[in-house]
Amino acid sequence: MTNLDLNTVTWRKSSYSGDDGGECIEVAPGFPGLVPVRDSKDPSGPALVFPAAAWQSFVAGVRAGDFPDFPAGC
């Protein structure tokens, strides 16, 4: 995989995130076929990069309630 420079991207906070500082994530759009993800509470920390298809499957599972222990605030 090519190294991605994520220092200058615009991160988008999860629509499930509240303003209470919960356990939430941010994603960086604009990477064809990839979805960079980071912890919104640690913006200078590491980011994980997922294949877009895997990320879409995960999001579909969250929306379908497949992860009952997923934090309610996110």
TrEMBL record:
Highest taxon of the lineage: Bacteria
DUF397 domain span: 10-63
Protein name, entry field: DUF397 domain-containing protein
Source organism (scientific name): Kitasatospora indigofera
